[in-house]
Automatic annotation (TrEMBL), chain A:
InterPro entries: ABC-4/HrtB_transporter, ABC3_permease_C. It is a multi-pass membrane protein. This is ABC transporter permease. It is found in: Cell membrane. The chain crosses the membrane at residues 12-36, 260-282, 303-326, 346-367. Pfam families: FtsX (PF02687). Keywords: Cell membrane, Membrane, Transmembrane, Transmembrane helix, Transport. Residues 262-371 form the ABC3 transporter permease C-terminal domain.
From TrEMBL, chain B:
One of its GO terms (cellular component) is plasma membrane. GO terms for molecular function: ATP binding; ATP hydrolysis activity; transmembrane transporter activity. This is ABC transporter. Keywords: ATP-binding, Cell inner membrane, Cell membrane, Membrane, Nucleotide-binding, Transport. Residues 10-233 form the ABC transporter domain. InterPro entries: AAA+_ATPase, ABC_transporter-like_ATP-bd, ABC_transporter-like_CS, ABC_transpr_LolD-like, MacB-like_ATP-bd, P-loop_NTPase. Belongs to the ABC transporter superfamily. Macrolide exporter (TC 3.A.1.122) family.
């Protein structure tokens, strides 16, 4: 006869309510981890999309994401000529805010050269950009449809295709357009500013600047040797894809990781305290029953088993509910929540340990209960 | 009534018990000696605080005496200190308790409240169930086997508790005001039942009571006053 189970069954409503409360807490812990994973994933989406081996940026900078980087537009041709480089493409990146149906829309514009690396991937609807001007591929996260026109600055862009899951490290959905369009968007001045410049006698500034050049090298050449080659140009810096990813994880994600890590740790401590308190009160509520059990001759292991089993059952059910909850609502989060089975397992392990440690408090109490206290009133 | 040549089931010599020390010292029992033989039903009478519960607790190995000597069913269990390590096992096998308030486990039904002690003693589940059923029927609460304690009347609960106390065929039955929660008619039924058990199973019954109507159910009555036993025949 399993006493832990019988006791739970007898107070099922209360037990389930407790488990439900715990599941909300554990759900939050799990979503924190998922949010962090999503953050890392999102941050790397943009940098992985061009399938580059090398990033060429302005000398002395860690561009184009961690720092601003500006290099001449013709850099791509110089890079493409280096031995071992199979393809290269110039790229522009900028955050843009616009309005659509009266709503503010934040997006991250990626400009690339047609026929060169850097274009959109994961196109789930429509087609890629086919013309050099005024076409764009947007991410589903932006909420626009194919065929729709989107007004950016003074230019209207026709959305010809949609990608899925393409976001910048800040979580803003990506909008791909040709380099020329994005340069115009970046450098065009308002009409009044242009008139003022003209009046000053200045020529319209050179807009042929890009933020980075991505390059792919042939498989039999180490990217590092090409990186060394590029560094001979005094105005350029270069880093391999691995370096770029590490940089991004460190500079962009590291603070978020510490923040979320700390928060997760705090939540875990809170969960542990709460579980310990619940187990303690569950034991307190059973003092008389435990005294009776001791009196009729139940050994300590029966009583310890009862406390531990209930505590673990609570943890398992609470975690199960919590995981189920988050799996079902994760897509409604404003940012991506990535739930990895190994994270779930790790948390389950931690919760199990927490439950066992927490039951120690209850067990201590249970063992101290004097069987004589069951006698009399 | 029953004078048997057998050796006593309960034997206490010069048992004393005090709680606390110095200013707060309470002498609950002073130099108590007692012998109870198989088949005997002993009544304990006395005002509140006189030491009756303490005496039962010492015999039931729930409370350790301060000094003296005690033997239960042939085993010396106390000689100025515990002489046995597994007191709970001893309790499980040899002692049945009936409390003033029934003390049934609220999360088990009547049947399980009885079979749990058999289960703890290692009796296989089906045999435990069968024996529990028999005991409940014997105590005329067989029809309440699936009811939980909260749904039992005072008398029914007390009879389930008695069934539990008897489940492992203990030779020593300790009852602390077993009839206090019952009306006198039911109290008499319960006492007669304990009598019957003592005779049929060769057990010793030691019961605390205030109920004058059941005095004639006892073979002997001891009065407890200030922690001392006074015989009255
Ligand atoms: N655990 C205890 N700690 C201190 N004093 C106690 C304890 N149990 C009983 N006593 C004291 O011992 C005396 C005898 O108590 P008890 O055996 O319960 O008497 P009765 O059952 O006859 O009412 C009382 O004075 C009581 O206050
Ligand atoms: Mg008492």
């Amino acid at each position: 006869m399993n006493l832990a189970y019988r006791d739970i069954k007898h107070n099922l409503g209360r037990f389930l309510l407790t488990c439900f409360g715990l599941s909300l807490l554990l759900g939050v812990v799990l979503s924190m981890i998922g949010i962090y994973r999503g953050l890392v994933d999102d941050a790397l989406t943009l940098v992985r999309a061009p399938n580059a081996d090398i990033w060429v940026v302005e000398t002395g900078t860690l561009g184009p994401f961690a720092e601003a980087s500006r290099i001449p537009g013709n850099t791509r041709e110089d890079i493409a000529r280096i031995a071992g480089v199979t393809a290269a493409g110039a790229m522009n990146f900028q955050s843009v805010q616009t309005q659509r149906h009266g709503q503010e829309l934040r997006l991250y514009v990626v400009g690339y050269e047609l026929g060169h690396p850097g274009g959109p991937i994961n196109i789930v609807e429509g087609r890629n950009i086919g013309r050099d001007r005024y076409e764009a591929v947007a991410d589903l996260g932006l909420g626009v449809k194919t065929g729709e026109t989107l007004q950016l600055g003074r230019t209207a862009f026709k959305i010809v295709g949609l990608t899925e899951g393409m976001v910048a490290s800040g979580g803003d959905p990506l909008l791909y357009m040709t380099l020329r369009d994005s340069q115009q968007l970046q450098f065009e001045l308002s009409p009044s500013a242009v008139r003022k410049e003209r009046a000053r006698g200045a020529r319209p500034g050179s807009a042929d600047t890009v933020n980075a050049v991505v390059a792919q090298v042939s498989a039999n050449i180490a990217p590092e040797t090409v990186v060394q080659d590029i560094k001979r140009w005094k105005h350029l810096a270069a880093m391999s894809q691995v370096e770029q990813e590490t940089l991004l994880t460190q500079s962009v994600v590291d603070r978020a990781r510490k923040q979320i890590g700390l928060f997760t740790a705090i939540l875990l401590v809170v969960s542990a305290v709460i579980i310990a308190l619940i187990v303690y009160t569950m034991t307190m509520d059973k003092i008389r029953e435990i005294a009776t059990l001791k009196l009729i001759g139940a050994p300590d292991r029966t009583i310890i088993g009862m406390v531990i089993q209930q505590s673990v059952a609570m943890g398992v059910i609470g975690f199960g509910f919590g995981a189920l909850l988050i799996v079902n609502i994760k897509d409604y989060f404003p940012r991506r929540v990535v739930l990895q089975p190994e994270d779930g397992l790790a948390l389950a392990g931690v919760i199990l340990i927490v439950c066992l440690l927490s039951s120690a408090l209850g067990v201590r109490l249970a063992l101290k209960i004097d069987p004589a206290s069951a006698m009399g009133g | 009534m029953t004078t048997t040549p057998q050796s006593p089931l309960i034997e206490l010599k010069h048992i004393s018990k005090h709680y606390g020390e110095g200013e707060t010292r309470v002498d609950a029992l002073r130099d108590v000696s007692l012998e109870v033989y198989p088949g005997q039903v002993i009544g304990l009478l006395g005002p509140s605080g006189s030491g009756k519960t303490t005496l039962l607790n010492i015999i039931g190995c729930i409370v350790e005496a301060s000094s003296g000597w005690a033997k239960l069913d042939g085993d010396v269990i106390y000689d100025n200190a515990w002489m046995k390590s597994d007191l709970r096992r001893l309790r499980l096998d040899k002692v049945g308790f009936i409390f003033q308030f029934h003390n049934l486990l609220p999360f088990l039904n009547s049947m399980e409240n009885v079979s749990v002690v058999l289960d703890l003693a290692g009796v296989p589940a089906d045999r435990a169930k069968q024996r529990a059923q028999e005991l409940l029927e014997y105590l005329e609460v067989g029809h309440r086997r699936d009811a939980y304690p909260a749904h039992l009347s005072g008398g029914e609960a007390q009879r389930v508790a008695i069934a539990r106390a008897l489940a492992n065929n203990p030779r020593i039955i300790l009852a602390d005001e077993p009839t206090a929660a019952l009306d006198s008619e039911r109290a008499l039924i319960v006492m007669k039942l304990l009598r019957k058990l003592a005779v049929e199973q060769d057990a010793a019954v030691l019961a605390v009571t205030h109920d004058e109507k059941i005095y004639d159910q006892f073979d002997r009555i001891f009065h407890v006053r200030d922690g001392q036993l006074v015989t009255e025949d």
